[in-house]
Amino acid sequence: MSLDRIMNEAISPWMREEGPDSDIVLSSRVRLARNLRDYQFPTMLTNEEAEQIIHVFQENFANQKVEPFGGFELLQMNRIQPLQRRVLVEKHLVSPDLVGTEYGACLLSENEQVSIMLNEEDHIRIQCLFPGLQLSEALHSANQIDDWIESQVEYAFDEQVGYITSCPTNIGTGLRASVMIHLPALVLTGQMNRIVQAINQLGLVVRGIYGEGSEVLGNIFQLSNQMTLGKPEEDIVEDLKSVVQQLIQQERTARESIMKSSSIELEDKVYRSYGVLENSRLIESAEAATCLSDVRLGIDLGYIENIPRNILTELMVLTQPGILQQYAGGPLQSDERDYRRAALIRERLRIEQNRAK
């Protein structure tokens, strides 16, 4: 694995696979927050201490293999270009907070399914990503990586409280589980506001695709737990999974309802969006996300054939500003990005149409 390959291949290998309920759940993620016992929290770390932590991981974990994820490469944020850091965020490999940290770093697995962020809000943040609804599998993998790390370092841990974290909301298990879920029918039927309020009352939170403070694009929501203390990891994951399964059923019911009551209007909406994607010469990221969401719904409902569903997931990533600029070889003005985004989408759809003939 190399940085060039990570930059040049917009789609991570694990994203090319489909998991359970992939028509609605795009991905599952589990993140574990950990801190080293003998160091101050990252907010108080000296530059020298931050470098020491990176050195520990460089010496003990970089270039090591852990199956089935392959080898791990260490990326230091202050040694790569701003555009490359943005690509890492857009691929969901690191957090926006990490790339703004002078001494932030990341150990990234060969298949890009595991990311170990260093010196973000906590010393260590282990992230595991799976396609579809696979929260239990993501937790198992995160625990595997956690055990691997703990075999070489000593965590800050209290027998009564659990893992000690920088933010009180993460103390205990340090676990944050989340899913990326596509809910266009619930949005179209005006149910999402009520659903979000109900979810919040269950101790869960709904955010945009890049987490806290990010906007919702393309009817894609991130649903995650808020409670990390007082429950075993498995129970936290099962509670979230139960709510997600209910959302999946509600989304499918809403899709059936729209097809029965407004089939022509829905088909028109899908094909109008398809026409925009197929013919636009300029398209902004928000409009592209909305149209891609409509077309993905059309594929799921059988209106559009001969275009695989994962192409839309791929295009959601490929058309992000940082990745567009990476492919262009440097910074682009907003109108230049809109032009390249439209051209990329047209070309990708044309390739699939030719394959289907």
From TrEMBL:
It is an enzyme of class 2 (transferase). ATP binds at residues 27-31, 92, 125, 176-180, 207-212. The keyword Ligase does not apply. Appears to be allosterically activated by the binding of pArg-containing polypeptides to the pArg-binding pocket localized in the C-terminal domain of McsB. It catalyses: L-arginyl-[protein] + ATP = N(omega)-phospho-L-arginyl-[protein] + ADP + H(+). Pfam families: ATP-gua_Ptrans. Gene3D superfamilies: Glutamine synthetase/guanido kinase, catalytic domain (3.30.590.10). CDD domains: bacterial_phosphagen_kinase. Keywords: Allosteric enzyme, ATP-binding, Kinase, Nucleotide-binding, Transferase. Transmembrane segments: none annotated. Residues 24-254 form the Phosphagen kinase C-terminal domain. Its EC number is 2.7.14.1. A motif (RDXXRA motif of the pArg binding pocket involved in allosteric regulation) lies at residues 337-342. The keyword ATP-binding applies. Belongs to the ATP:guanido phosphotransferase family. This is Protein-arginine kinase.
